[in-house]
TrEMBL record:
InterPro entries: 2-HAD, HAD-like_sf, HAD-SF_hydro_IA, HAD_sf, PGP-like_dom2, S-2-haloacid_dehalogenase. Pfam families: Hydrolase. GO terms for molecular function: (S)-2-haloacid dehalogenase activity. It comes from Marinobacter persicus. It is an enzyme of class 3 (hydrolase). It comes from the Bacteria. The lineage of its organism: Bacteria, Pseudomonadati, Pseudomonadota, Gammaproteobacteria, Pseudomonadales. It catalyses: an (S)-2-haloacid + H2O = a (2R)-2-hydroxycarboxylate + a halide anion + H(+). This is (S)-2-haloacid dehalogenase.
Length: 229
């Protein structure tokens, strides 16, 4: 395949955009320090559980429901007013410091750069513009267009089809072990950037590449794709 058809797919939340703003929002409301991590973990748990039943619930609806349950468990009342202050924060996230250089490197190496998110396309595009990343991204794909959450195998394959890619000439970069594991299950190369977790989950298939720095990871994964993996 020609070089321009090598596709580098990036997860979005935590891989590209930090959830520190969410931590700050919870803290400003006097909620415990662990609230952000608990909320996001329960959000993914709930989404994966519902998805396993063959039902699709978009990110915003799932986040609202999970947050409602969590806030009630924490004794926050009224929960509705807090939810309306928290959910907009997903549109205000900042990119990790290594992101611009990593994306520029990917483009310089001839990669087709795709952001693939469990969130909405419109929110992701807003974050891209807010952080000045527009020039380095070729496509944004949301699971909304397929009605199924990652890490189901066919959503990775479906995302690649939408951008004219093939699994054998594509790689997934993510901060989540479940995401790189899902991409590998779909036939893609994978690289894991160490963000919130200090070690990779031992029950999941280890990715080909691991790094603390997104720039280094993009360099190694891109070179592997260019060499035919």
């Amino acid at each position: 395949m020609d070089q321009q058809h090598n596709v580098l797919v990036f997860d979005v939340i935590e891989t590209i955009f930090s959830l520190d703003a969410l931590s700050s929002a919870f803290h400003s409301l006097g909620l415990p320090e662990y609230t952000k991590d608990l909320f996001f973990a329960q959000l993914l748990r709930d989404a994966f559980a519902v998805s396993a039943t063959g039902t699709y619930v978009p990110f915003a609806n799932m986040a609202r429901g999970t947050l409602d349950v969590l806030l009630n468990n924490l004794g926050v009342s009224p929960a509705d007013s807090v939810i309306e202050r928290i959910l907009p924060v997903f549109g205000q996230l900042n990119a990790h410091p290594d992101v611009p250089k990593a994306l520029a490197l990917a483009k310089n190496k001839g990669m087709t750069v795709v952001f693939f998110t469990n969130g909405s396309k419109s929110n992701t595009e807003g974050l891209i513009t807010k952080n000045g990343l527009d020039n380095w991204i070729d496509h944004v794909v949301s699971i909304d267009s397929m009605g199924q959450w990652k890490p189901v195998r066919n959503v990775y394959q479906g995302a690649l089809q939408k951008v004219g890619g093939e699994t054998g000439h594509s790689a997934m970069i993510a901060a989540h072990a479940w995401d790189t594991n899902g991409a590998m299950n779909a036939g893609m190369l994978a690289g894991w950037v160490r963000r919130q977790d200090s070690s990779f989950h031992p029950a999941m298939s280890a990715p080909a590449f691991v790094s603390d720095n997104l720039v280094e990871l993009v360099d190694r994964v891109s070179d592997s794709l260019l060499a035919g993996r």
